[in-house]
Amino acid sequence: MKRFKNKKITVMGLGLHGGGLAVTRWLAERGADLTVTDLKSKSELKESLDKLKKYKNIKLILGRHRNADFVNCEMVIRNPAVPNNSKYLALAKKSGAVVHNEASLFFSLINSAKIIGITGTRGKSTTASLLGNILKKHGYKTLVAGNIGTSAMFDNYYSARQADFVVLELSSWHLEDMHEHKQSPHIAIITNLFPEHLNRYASYSAYKKAKAHILAWQSKKDMALINYDNNDSRQLGKLVLGKRIWLSRKFLPDQNAIFIKSGNVKLRLDGRESNLLSLKIMPSGWQLMLANYLAAMAAARILNVSPYSIRRGIKTFKGVPHRLEFIGDKDGVKFYNDSAASSPEATILALRALGGRTRKIILIAGGSDKKLNFTNLAKEIKKFAKAVVLFQGEGGTKLRQALKRVKMNSPIKTNQTSMQSALKNAMAYAKPGDIVLLSPACASFGLFTNEFDRGRQFVGTVKSL
């Protein structure tokens, strides 16, 4: 692509999650004159840097940022961790550089008419993966990518160009730069909204505003599928510029909606009501992920997928790694990996899904704090957990304090500095019939590379028992 040949581009934040690496490689292969700058050291970035060795058109500035790399460039690609008020971004913009993140650059290159964008606080990956599976079962060439952990957008650029549909999981950070470039997907899905990332945003209102950007540049021909049963996502319904379709477990008369009625999932669109499937074929635990399933079914039907293919897609769906993933049973103790649960609300859902009338869960939680409130989670832990093991970090400390306030009298082991020690202590409390659940309710920063590394370490340690 000649538009990037010899173009002076600064990549701000190579990172270890894959998105920064993918866009850097993609630009390097198109002949861009690249500067990669990251506050991390060479040793910290070794895994990513090893994959860039063959490119001769990349200059590395590590352990610091320099003004010159932002004044003398035509474009900046910023990592999600870069704050909006960064002085280096301000310098670049003042000097006339265009600022993108991976999502806004991707949207500028791919026809948005075939993009289904999914955002929300919880359930994005499940919704995106399920919808992708349904579309594939129907015979559509489909790419699932984005903030999903295993499929960076620019690692899949050619697949996206050839696909019938592109399903993207979009974070609030993705949406910020997309908003600057006036970009929205043809079909937007909002799964729900809860307080999250308050270490990044000044308030919950600011976080919700970032999520709402997914709707801002849609046209009357576009569509938005929004969770009606979640109060904060429902409030965004008034911002829809195109066709709005509610997702709800309730019967909603006289509105475009997908809902449950008389034991069936029904879709009403433009006054016509159709039956999609019976709840009898839904997998176990569907109640806790209902909005995700409804969103995937509604989007598929809008894209002319048959009810038969929808049912096939649901029946063959394997779930998503690190989302309440059953790892195995050892000596009568069951192990679940819910490492993607990085907020209190997510861990509450996991406890309710696995908890019974007796307290049988040994919860492994804690880590880095995102300035979230743990009070409601502490009450649920008291109800469902027989013991708690907490990772070192401010999040773990805050959760310990919240547990004290609700007068939890079950054992609490704190300041774990590795997955091995956390699991060893969890096993000391476990008996046949119990469940060891990794559902941290906190970020992974510090002890782990990211939530996927945290989950992989848990799975690996369990399998080595």
Question: Main beta sheet: strand number and arrangement?
Answer: 9 strands, mixed
Assigned CATH superfamily of the largest domain: Mur-like, catalytic domain
Form type: globular
Question: How many independent structural domains?
Answer: 3
Family: Belongs to the MurCDEF family.
Protein name: UDP-N-acetylmuramoylalanine--D-glutamate ligase
Subcellular location: Cytoplasm
Organism: Candidatus Buchananbacteria bacterium CG10_big_fil_rev_8_21_14_0_10_42_9
Write the layout of secondary structure elements.
Layout: E1 8-12, H1 19-29, E2 33-38, H2 46-49, E3 58-62, H3 68-71, E4 75-78, H4 87-94, E5 98-100, H5 102-109, E6 115-119, H6 124-137, E7 142-146, H7 157-162, E8 165-169, H8 172-180, E9 187-190, H9 204-216, E10 223-227, H10 231-234, E11 243-247, E12 257-261, E13 264-269, E14 272-278, H11 290-302, H12 307-315, E15 325-330, E16 333-337, H13 344-354, E17 361-366, H14 375-384, E18 385-391, H15 394-405, E19 412-416, H16 419-429, E20 435-438, H17 451-463
Helix pairs in contact: 5-8, 6-11, 6-12, 8-9, 13-14, 14-15
Main location: cytoplasm
Catalytic activity: UDP-N-acetyl-alpha-D-muramoyl-L-alanine + D-glutamate + ATP = UDP-N-acetyl-alpha-D-muramoyl-L-alanyl-D-glutamate + ADP + phosphate + H(+)
Domain Mur ligase central: 118-299
What does this structure look like?
The protein has 465 residues and is α/β, with parallel strands linked by helices. The chain folds into 3 domains: 2-100, NAD(P)-binding Rossmann-like Domain (Rossmann fold, 3-Layer(aba) Sandwich), CATH 3.40.50; 104-315, UDP-N-acetylmuramoyl-L-alanine:D-glutamate ligase (3-Layer(aba) Sandwich), CATH 3.40.1190; 325-463, Mur ligase, C-terminal domain (Protein-Tyrosine Phosphatase, Chain A), CATH 3.90.190. Helix content is 34%, strand content 22%. It is built from 17 helices and 20 strands. It has helices at residues 19-29, 46-49, 68-71, 87-94, 102-109, 124-137, 157-162, 172-180, 204-216, 231-234, 290-302, 307-315, 344-354, 375-384, 394-405, 419-429, 451-463; strands spanning 8-12, 33-38, 58-62, 75-78, 98-100, 115-119, 142-146, 165-169, 187-190, 223-227, 243-247, 257-261, 264-269, 272-278, 325-330, 333-337, 361-366, 385-391, 412-416, 435-438. The strands form 3 sheets. The protein has a 9-stranded mixed β-sheet with strand order 7-8-6-9-10-11-12-13-14, with helices on both faces. It has a 6-stranded mixed β-sheet with strand order 15-16-20-17-18-19, sandwiched between helices. Strand 9, helix 9 and strand 10 (223-227) form a beta-alpha-beta unit. It is globular, with a radius of gyration of 23 Å. The termini are far apart. The mean pLDDT is 95. One of its GO terms (biological process) is cell division. GO terms for molecular function: ATP binding; UDP-N-acetylmuramoylalanine-D-glutamate ligase activity. Belongs to the MurCDEF family. InterPro entries: Mur-like_cat_sf, Mur_ligase_C, Mur_ligase_C_dom_sf, Mur_ligase_cen, MurD. Keywords: ATP-binding, Cell cycle, Cell division, Cell shape, Cell wall biogenesis/degradation, Cytoplasm, Ligase, Nucleotide-binding, Peptidoglycan synthesis.
